[in-house]
Design goal:
The protein is α+β, with helices and mostly antiparallel strands. The protein is built from one helix and five strands; from the N terminus they run βββββα. Helices cover 20% and strands 54% of the residues. It is elongated and about 50 Å long. A hairpin with a 2-residue loop joins strand 1 and strand 2. Strands 1-2-3-4-5 form a five-stranded antiparallel sheet, covered by helices on one side. It has one domain.
């Protein structure tokens, strides 16, 4: 029996991201009502933020989004 591919909608919303004690402009990624991660924008670079700490930096927003989705899928 084949399994149907399930379409999942990921939403990206503008938000303020807290890193340590500072707040930066950034984005929040969510699936439904569950937030899967945050991305902060630093001097033209994008940082993946987990629990208020920077995990990694990327030059393009698309790469940061891909990274967060991979982390979310591997954690399931």
């Amino acid at each position: 029996m084949s399994k149907k591919d399930k379409k999942i909608e990921i939403q990206i919303a503008d938000s303020k991201v807290t890193v340590g004690a500072d707040q930066f402009d950034g984005y929040t990624l969510s699936i439904g009502k569950k937030i899967i991660g945050e991305i902060a924008e630093f001097d033209g670079q994008f940082a993946v933020v987990k629990n208020g700490n920077v995990e990694s930096f990327y030059k393009k927003l698309e790469k940061a989004v891909e990274s967060l989705i991979e982390i979310y899928n591997l954690g399931k």
